[in-house]
Each structure stands twice: as C-alpha cells, then as structure tokens.
Specification:
This protein is an all-alpha fold. It has one domain. The protein contains 6 helices and no strands. Helix 1 crosses helix 2, helix 2 runs parallel beside helix 4 and helix 5 runs antiparallel to helix 6. The longest helix has 21 residues. The chain starts with a helix and ends with a helix. 22% of the residues are buried. It is found in: Nucleus; Cytoplasm. This is Exportin-T. It holds the Pfam family Exportin-T.
C-alpha cells in the first residue's frame, strides 16, 4: 500500500506543482483513469481499499481540481493550459459518473462551503453537472 500512496502522491504533486501545463494535463488524465477504475459504486477491487481511495480523492485530488486553475502561472491563453483545464473538467465529470449523488452532496455540503463559495454559486455548479 505504501508504494501505491507514493505513486498517487507523485501524480498529485505533478498535477499541482509542476510548472509545465503538459505535465499537469498528463497527471490529471492519469487521475481520471484511477478514479474511473477504483471509485465506482460497484468496484470489487480491494487494493487499494475502495473507501480509502475515495477518501483520498475527496481530500487530495478534488482540491487540486480547483486550486490548479487559480494558480497565477496557469495561463488559459496557453494551449496546454487550456487542454489541462479540459482534463480537470473531465476528471470532475468522471467523479459525478462514478460516485453520483454522494459526490454532488459532498461538493454542496462540505467542499464548496469550505472554500467560502456562496450557496447559490455552488448550486449552479451542481445543477449543471
């Protein structure tokens, strides 16, 4: 399990801290594939433990989906950054697909309020999901 945590940490670090938007994009693509494979409602995989991975997604992966586009170095006029944003959106959509109402409720009741996002704006994000 330690190796899995190390690899996940490296991917999250690449997505959040790399100055290269193409590296960020590849990291978000990888995270989406992991979410797709390890976080569905009917996953039978015990390694890593499904509930542990879901917690990791909510505590580590979800925040960088909002933090990265707000970084001063993230320039949407740059093509790779724009593609990276598309991968972030794709990852969030995959979370909605895999976790459904649970994910939307978490966003609405816990995560978005922790960012001080007004309820009406958060509701628009969730309704448009």
């Amino acid at each position: 399990m330690e190796q899995v945590n190390s690899v996940l940490g490296s991917i999250v670090e690449g997505a959040s801290a790399s100055p290269d938007p193409s590296v960020k994009r590849i990291c978000f693509m990888s995270l989406k594939k992991l979410v797709e494979g390890w976080s569905g409602q009917n996953v039978l995989l015990d390694y890593p433990s499904t509930s542990g991975f879901i917690d990791y997604v909510y505590k580590e992966i979800l925040p960088i989906c909002f933090i990265v586009p707000l970084q001063p170095t993230f320039d949407l006029n740059e093509g790779q950054a724009y593609l990276c944003l598309g991968e972030i959106v794709s990852l969030l959509k995959e979370l909605v697909t895999q976790r459904g109402e649970e994910f939307l409720l978490y966003l609405q009741s816990q995560y978005l309020p922790s960012l001080m996002i007004p309820t009406d704006i958060g509701q628009v994000l969730i309704i448009d999901s």
